[in-house]
Amino acid sequence: MSDFIKDSNTDVTNEKSKVLSRRDFFKKTGAMSAVAASSVVAPSLLKASEDDPAIMHHPKWGQSWGDPVTKNRYGIPSAYEHNVTRRNTKLLASGNYRASIAVTPIHESDGIITPNGLFFSRCHGGIAHVDPNEYRLMITGLVEKPIVLTLAQLKRYPRVTRTHFIECPANGGQEWRRPQYNSLQFAKGFMSCAEWTGVYIKTILEDLKLKPEAKWMLAEGSDNSEMGRSVPVEKVLDDAMIVWGQNGEALRPEQGYPVRLLLPGWEGNLCVKWLKRLDFASEPWYAKEETSKYTALKPTGKAVQHFYANEVNSTVVIPSPEKPWTDLEDGAMVEIEGLAWSGMGTITRVDLSFDGGNNYVEANIKGLVLPKCWTRWSYIHKYKKGEKLLLTSRAIDDAGFIQPTIDQEVFGFDVKKEDYGKDKNKGMGVESVYHRNAIETWEVNEKGEVNHVQVRTI
Ligand SMILES: Nc1nc2c(c(=O)[nH]1)N[C@H]1C(S)=C(S)[C@@H](COP(=O)(O)O)O[C@H]1N2
Ligand SMILES: [Mo]
Description:
Elements: E1 18-21, H1 22-29, H2 53-56, H3 90-93, E2 100-102, E3 121-123, E4 136-141, E5 147-150, H4 151-154, E6 160-167, H5 184-188, E7 191-200, H6 201-208, E8 216-221, E9 228-232, H7 233-238, E10 241-246, E11 249-250, E12 260-262, E13 275-281, H8 288-291, E14 294-297, E15 303-306, E16 313-318, E17 333-341, E18 347-353, E19 361-362, E20 364-366, E21 375-382, E22 389-397, H9 406-411, E23 441-444, E24 450-456
Parallel strand pairs: 1-24, 4-13
Antiparallel strand pairs: 2-3, 4-5, 6-7, 7-10, 8-9, 8-13, 10-11, 10-12, 14-15, 16-17, 17-21, 18-19, 18-22, 20-21, 22-23, 23-24
The ligand Nc1nc2c(c(=O)[nH]1)N[C@H]1C(S)=C(S)[C@@H](COP(=O)(O)O)O[C@H]1N2 binds near residues 122, 124, 271 and 274.
């Protein structure tokens, strides 16, 4: 664990962060040092040592009775895992820890499920505590049969269980100009992934009968922010869900207990928590909602416009600023691991670069590969003590999208490389807060420390 995180309010602005040009990197390091290895991976320093007291002595926890099994009726993690927590920072809180963001420690994550206690949480009006007995869901507007449901009535519809991530569209949004956080948790932790249980809204609509004029669904929360969002009816009839289950238990209060909206793959802010009303209408609530569009890059180099979905994205998880390689011996075989995800489909390929995106090798996709879901990938690497690397990952999805470079994302895809920097107005020049899915780079230095950098092609 790197030592920059001392308490949950530590300011982690990235003092070491820098913007590199590709030429800088090649001047410094010469050729690329990727090794495609198939050898056995083993922590080679482990030996059955006689002088290791941790293995030679009977430990204190085995010498007396342990706690009664009912001590924690609701279990909690080992006390030794106390550092694995969500975190926030003044930079993201605007001085208000109620209308705030708590980011997920994805550097500590295994597999593709985020435990409920670590799930990313964004609340505009604080965490509401809704009494399930008083909970009601009203479904109204352009339906033949408007209804008000209790929680028990809602749960009588046939249920489905699906695994999806929820990502705030501002994830990574601090990093447009330069890396701001020397931390995976803060740079990419505005998201989490869980197994959700609930009902497809299209199933409820079979009963309520949607009128043909209905083009938008307005969703409203019952928290202090009374969040209202409009969702196109095509998405509602595709895979929109109303969920009450999160990883095998009731939704946590932070996730909108007892019921939230889930729009698989779409912007997290549309997934209204503490859901109280769905109102079908012919118009959206805000004109903006019809017009906000973003672009995404196809592998052909062509960009297309779309809106609402979180674009294909990826990150290296190990190593990362929080998980450096400072203790690795020369020649160690290590597994580089990461996550990839796309709100538009299923991950089909992940590439890994050791030189900041000039050359790529194909990574292995691990375990379950599901649509609109976190996907694990890895690559076995032979570590050379003192080597300098620029680790960059790039994911591709089955909707045909590929992660852009930051320059493509900022200046546009039609601008030729030789025009970059000459006329910044020529491209889109978009440095927004939202929908940044450009490739990210970790610099591994001679000591094995990992820093967040940005490689520019300009
Ligand atoms: N009612 C309500 N719903 C809400 C919010 C809120 O503040 N109130 N925040 C939204 C935002 S901006 C995001 S990114 C997601 C985050 O979901 P999570 O907190 O479960 O991760 O919830 C969305 N739904
Ligand atoms: Mo958000």
